[in-house]
Amino acid sequence: MSEPTKPILSVKNLKQHFKVNRKFTVKAVDGVSFDIYPGETYGLVGESGSGKSTIGRSVIRLYDITDGEMTFNGQDISGKMTKETNEMMRTKMQMIFQDPMASLNPRKTVMDIIAQGLDIHGKAGSKEEREQQVIEILERVGLSREFANRYPNQFSGGQRQRIGIARALIMNPDLIIADEAISALDVSIQAQIVNLMKDIQKETNVAYLFIAHDLSMVRYISDRIGVLHLGHLLETGTTEEIFTNPLHPYTKSLISAIPHPNPILEKKRTSLTYDYAASGLNYSEGTLHTVEGTHKVLGTDLEVERWLQKDNQSEVIGVS
Amino acid sequence: MTKEKVLSIRDLSIAFKTSSGLVNAVRGVNLDLYKGETLAIVGESGSGKSVTVKAIMGILSNNGKIKSGTIEYTYEENGEKVTKNLLDFSKKEMRKNINGKHIAMVFQDPMTSLDPTMNIGNQIMEGMRIHYKTPKKEAYAKAVELLELVGITDAESRMSNYPHQLSGGMRQRIVIAIALASDPDVLICDEPTTALDVTIQAKILELIQSIQRKTGISVIYITHDLGVVAKVANDVNVMYAGRIIETGTVNEVFYEPRHPYTWGLLLAMPDLETKADKLESIPGNPPNMEHEVVGDPFAPRNPYALNIDLRLEPPMFKISETHYAATWLLAEDAPDCPLPKELQERIERMKREDERYVGTDETYTFSEELKAAL
């Protein structure tokens, strides 16, 4: 799949290190590159501590990045930004957080929470216009207009997450970073929120950076996927490529760990084990090899060649 | 072969007194757990699944009141088989005789269920030392054995570690070792893997299964993940608004689900081939149990609801010896309601997968009635 359009977000060699003390630095993200195109969903997966949330937070500049280049809408956002770039980035890139309980200010009404972005950037207009915009967005995310004057504690988890989405949408963004946005919700509510996000994407052509650890949802919502482990991007490609031909042993272990909702098959399966220390791999020695199209895998020449010869599909099923 | 019944819950109802009134969290639950088997309870948050197992352990919070029901537990005491109603015991008797010793529990978050000020060796030995007065040396040896059983390498040196020195997956292994320390007959796992990564989740589930094969322990699993259910359970109970609305063997529930809520749950989870534009989602939110329920509590979210659902709560209809569901769609003069198309496709896919990877002799055989309907 070749994308003729220019990427909306381009991240090159992103490094995000945290200095713990004089002797010790945590390399949370260590040289990650990826592109996101308009209107697509890029899924980032990996276990806790793999750096997936850090990437999201670095991209939206909640951290000052250690090294690397990021361009958003064609403008450089990796270093000190001009006032115009800053303004553009702060409105056109929005974030939805994991915990809908903790990410809404309990002392503000829904109206004020959603309109805060407008207020800050001076786009609210008159009081009536502001109200009108909020109500439009509320109805767009499936909430009734009466909710505007209530407080977050009066809502359930799913409704709060809808408020979180409304808050991001009101700025008319080009990119939304969804950091584990559905992980804290019940299964039936997860499906509702995912459907809502897909609908909105179709209408507004917004791109998502979808960060999650639940691979079955990521598979469903994403066009392309990046697999992270210990701050390195191990494998990236279209969802199809990653799931039908996973090359890296870590990707395989991740995919084989998803329990299939099929009792007869599932009882026969054992998941693959992956241990970085015992695998003999060294992530920092590998380079990204292009397998085909957009499918890339991190490894040395020898490793990649070895992986390519395996029957990767049946290995992941893991029926003994 | 008759199966040995270990735990039998009948007509259990529990209410909580809160500032906004009485909340009927559990309304007439029946459950049977057999020796060496795994029972799964599936449901959304607030459906009453955790409250049910807390009642088994006698650890309901103070505003919880058991309104009716029995929990009969069959166990060996001094070489004799006795059956007792757990609800007759006082909290103190439960602590002394049942908790840990016969029924042990694994909680969701390993960080909050371990004592941060005590090394893990002592935490594992504590139960044995108190319940059985095991001499220290013996307890130590058994603790090391348990650590090896739960797949912790270098067990001897881990004994003196503290919880903060271990990763999340390791901690949950320790919690399981502690639960197994006093040789319980029943292990209750309340969302044991929700807080863990997928890869670690798979390993913990496989661990519990292998322990079950080795020791013949019965397990109650609480989860909202149907993939997990498919992996571990023999029997499945789907809970909604404090009632069990569908129960059956795992194959019956996955291949022949009869309750629209179970349909919704199955469809809300994308399987490996779901390519549809939209996930079939259950509309609306779970009901607030503060209000008295009139009719079927699922009716407002149920696209297949009948008029009677709004007035009368459906009883359990029998489908087979093991399979029951509470929906009026199974009543004799109910209109025909076939499975949603997506679900039919899903089941077909499952059958194809089974044939391809497992072999035809082990695939699920549909009952004649359902075959006709498909």
Automatic annotation (TrEMBL), chain A:
> Can you say what this protein is called?
Oligopeptide transport system ATP-binding protein
Q: Which UniProt keywords apply?
A: ATP-binding, Nucleotide-binding, Peptide transport, Protein transport, Transport
- CDD domains linked to this entry: ABC_NikE_OppD_transporters
What's the family?
Belongs to the ABC transporter superfamily.
| Chief location | membrane
- Give all residue intervals belonging to the ABC transporter domain: 9-255
Cite the source lineage. Bacteria, Bacillati, Bacillota, Bacilli, Lactobacillales
Q: Where in the cell is it found?
A: Cell membrane
Q: How does it sit in the membrane?
A: Peripheral membrane protein
Q: Which organism is it from?
A: Desemzia incerta
Q: Which GO terms describe its cellular component?
A: plasma membrane
Query: Which Pfam families did the record assign?
Result: ABC_tran, oligo_HPY
From TrEMBL, chain B:
Q: Chief localization class?
A: membrane
Q: Which GO terms describe its biological process?
A: peptide transport
Question: Which compartments does it reside in?
Answer: Cell membrane
Which Gene3D superfamilies does the annotation name? P-loop containing nucleotide triphosphate hydrolases (3.40.50.300)
One cellular-component annotation, GO: plasma membrane
Specify the superkingdom: Bacteria
SMART domains (UniProt xref): AAA
Annotated ABC transporter domain residues = 9-266
* Record-linked InterPro entries: AAA+_ATPase, ABC_Ni/Peptide_Import, ABC_transporter-like_ATP-bd, ABC_transporter-like_CS, Oligopep_ABC_C, P-loop_NTPase
Which GO terms of the molecular function aspect are on file?
ATP binding; ATP hydrolysis activity
Sorted UniProt keywords: ATP-binding, Cell membrane, Membrane, Nucleotide-binding, Transport
| Topology versus the membrane | Peripheral membrane protein
Q: Which family does it belong to?
A: Belongs to the ABC transporter superfamily.
**Database matches in PANTHER family:** DIPEPTIDE TRANSPORT ATP-BINDING PROTEIN DPPD, OLIGOPEPTIDE TRANSPORT ATP-BINDING PROTEIN APPD
> What's the protein called, per UniProt?
Oligopeptide transport system ATP-binding protein
